[in-house]
Amino acid sequence: MPQIAPDSLLSLEAYARERNAYRSRVIAHKKLRTVHVGEHVTLIFEDEQTIRYQVQEMLRIERIFEAEGIRGELEAYNPLIPDGRNWKATMLIEYPEPEERRRRLAELKGIEDRSWVQVEGCEKVFAIADEDLDRENEEKTSAVHFVRFELGEGMCGALKRGASLSIGIDHPNYRASVLPAPEVRQSLASDLA
Positive or negative CA dihedral for 69, 71, 76, 82? Predict the structure, then answer.
């Protein structure tokens, strides 16, 4: 599995100098990895670059510079990097009004398990959600989930050869699907071994 090594990270001082330019590059990169599924759900597909940015930001915010603290951050974030046979994404459920958000999160319990990807000619692959901790309780689901889509070898090969990709959600209270833009599909396909 791909990993970020401690010695590949920028020091706090170097990151402070390069942060603005680095942040601009990551924002542009994330646009190629973001899929809006319907009006209220966004999937941001993570990779080494997006996770490296998260780690650098956490180190900066928490002022972590000691080896043990850096190792701790990497132990938390490295598992979020896809391994060449899967995609890992942050799922955001977005309702701007607090009352509507509260009501909808109660209606959308289990939505994270009903998100899927489908490679042309293959079966849907449903997400494996929140492996690190449960983000749902008796009343509602969380507005943020971490999901993983495991792809078979045939799916990976088909995507690399140009097969189409659809991404969706099949929940009783939220159904939507989308064909990602070609540049997003290409970015996701480039993650695959």
Answer: positive
